[in-house]
Amino acid sequence: MTIKSAQARSSLALLIEEKLGYAMIKHAKPAVTNGRFASGPTQQNSFFVKSEHGTLKRALKRQQLQKIQRQQNIEAVMGMSLSLCPDVTSRGRPDPDWLEHFISLAEDIANQTMQKLWAKILVGESIAPGTFSIKSLQTLKLMTQREAEALQKCASLCGYLEKEDSYLIILGYYKKPSLLDLLRKGSTETINLAQAGLSFPHILTLMDINLMYRQEIESSSLQKGQSLTLVYQNQKVNFEAKSNELVLSYYKLTQTGDELKKLINTPVNKTYRQLLNKTLEDEFTLTFE
């Protein structure tokens, strides 16, 4: 056995003891029945719990340890929420049913980073009840590390559209061909989001967990002088059309995606900002306020 594998087994054994409340040890030798090695579970599992207590008592102890861990988790989340809560006026109390769902889901969150996200949810709901749906809580609870990473990368590219209270990611634009030139397809420019860190697999992941709509969405046709305004981390960006019949294309977050995006305060992706300028500069004037 190499040093690394020995360390892994030692770490695993400690983890098991923490969760079971008892250590596991290896049988001195394989069980033998009628001169033959025993088959089935005994042969597959050569380790057993080292304890003088019966199975029922061991099960009760494991449940007690689980309750202690859950209590520690929810106390950590609520303690963080008090630390994060700003000194503002609350619009009311969270719905009692929502709060019960929150506790039952958050008490299983042991990771400190994730606990902070749950604390932010409790703060947001305490200030403005109805900010986070139970569906969003359930999605966050089931989110894997890979899915959380995709949302993190997505958040740094999102612009906030105030009139729809939603987040979107500008992909590019196309110019509709004029009536006098119907054979032309019109000019089209698209941003490669992978260059800004949001790969296509990331996008598919967000779509699969219902945080992003599956189809690209288009704005209404913008005429010369008309504009679309988005907010990127408190900075307004105005996209003003230089000519007629310009259509912006974008990915849009779902309601659940919008709610979870509010938990992530990341600076605007600098590469994406450069790509926006470069891609749109021929047909749009970008003004940063």
Question: Which helices and strands occur, and which strands form pairs?
Answer:
Elements: H1 3-20, E1 24-26, E2 32-33, E3 36-37, H2 41-44, E4 47-49, H3 55-84, H4 96-106, H5 112-127, H6 134-142, H7 145-155, E5 159-161, E6 166-175, E7 188-190, H8 200-208, E8 217-218, E9 227-232, E10 235-241, E11 246-252, H9 255-261, H10 270-280, E12 284-288
Antiparallel strand pairs: 1-4, 2-3, 5-6, 6-7, 6-11, 8-11, 9-10, 10-12
Helix pairs in contact: 3-5, 4-6, 6-9, 7-8
Protein name: TIGR03899 family protein
Describe the structure.
The longest helix is centred in the first third of the chain and has 30 residues, at 55-84. The strands form four sheets. Strands 5, 6, 7, 8 and 11 form a five-stranded antiparallel sheet that branches. A three-stranded antiparallel sheet has the order 9-10-12, with no helix packed on it. It has helices spanning 3-20, 41-44, 55-84, 96-106, 112-127, 134-142, 145-155, 200-208, 255-261, 270-280, and strands at 24-26, 32-33, 36-37, 47-49, 159-161, 166-175, 188-190, 217-218, 227-232, 235-241, 246-252, 284-288. Helix 3 packs across helix 5 and helix 4 packs parallel to helix 6. By secondary structure, it is an alpha+beta fold. A hairpin with a 2-residue loop joins strand 9 (227-232) and strand 10. It folds into three domains: 3-51, no CATH class; 63-142; 146-288, no CATH class.
